[in-house]
Amino acid sequence: MRARTANSLLFLSAGITSALAQGTASQWGQCGGIGWTGPTVCPAGWGCSVVNPYYSQCLQGAASAPATTSAPATTSAPTGSSGGGGGPSQTSTASSGTTTLVPGNSFIRAAEDPNFHKYLQSEVLGTASDAVLGDPSAAAQFVITNGQLVQQLPTPLYAIVEPRANSTVMKLKVTWSTTLASSGTFSWSGDTVLWDNPSVPRQQNNAWLVCPDANGNRDLYVNLGAYAYNTPAGCADETIHAYTGSTATP
Ligand SMILES: *[C@@H]1O[C@H](CO)[C@@H](O)[C@H](O)[C@H]1NC(C)=O
């Protein structure tokens, strides 16, 4: 009886997986990771290689690693469209420099070196300046609502992705603005932050870059290319993720 139950479950979950993950991932494309619901099969001659818990990638000639695509229960997705009515939950405890998470908000952090557990924030804390990854002690708090990534401050800041100047531009800078503007749509996939804009083709909407500026700040960019492929000089590939622990841990 026990075996039969297990078999049924296995069958059921295989059915769900194939329903969600139809098709074949692209060359250099994502093929697995926590929260990934896209294709897990790579093109012929390509294998699915684990880059980190959040990201597996099709690599030429790689041996496919065992699929580890199911999300652990601990990485619960941020509750979707918070906000509904009265706007962002504004509270002074979400100001710069605090690390106690206000319920309903998320920290956002990178999961790969060299920016492992660096947290999204403003370059000049709490102000409309460049979007950077920085120390946990200065982690900002966020919601994604109506396609906008909102930094939760008494005066909210909205993430704005710069327009693409021409087709040779492969990364787009992210800045914080006190003004709501439509520069594309932010969303969660599980706990992973996505951005898309129908007029800006991307190979994958979860690929980000962190590129140091002249002062060593870790500026955040949308990566219009594939994750970990043709990475611009000086930049590091990152995916960025919600973290809803009560404090921003290193
Ligand atoms: C594309 O835009 C970038 C950034 O504005 C600029 O540096 C570059 O010269 C432009 N290239 C072409 C071919 O227009």
Automatic annotation (TrEMBL):
Q: Which GO biological-process labels does this protein carry? A: carbohydrate metabolic process
Domain CBM1, by residue range, is: 23-59
* Signal peptide location: 1-21
Q: State the InterPro entries in the record.
A: CBD, CBD_sf, DUF7908
Region (Disordered), start-end ranges: 67-98
SMART domains per the UniProt record, alphabetical = fCBD
Q: Give UniProt keywords alphabetically.
A: Signal
Q: Does the keyword Signal apply?
A: yes
Task: Give residue spans, biased composition: Low complexity.
Answer: 67-80, 89-98
Query: What superkingdom does the record give?
Result: Eukaryota
Q: Name one Pfam family in it.
A: DUF7908
**One MF annotation (Gene Ontology) recorded for this entry:** cellulose binding
Would you tell me the Gene Ontology cellular component terms? extracellular region
Query: What's the protein here called?
Result: CBM1 domain-containing protein
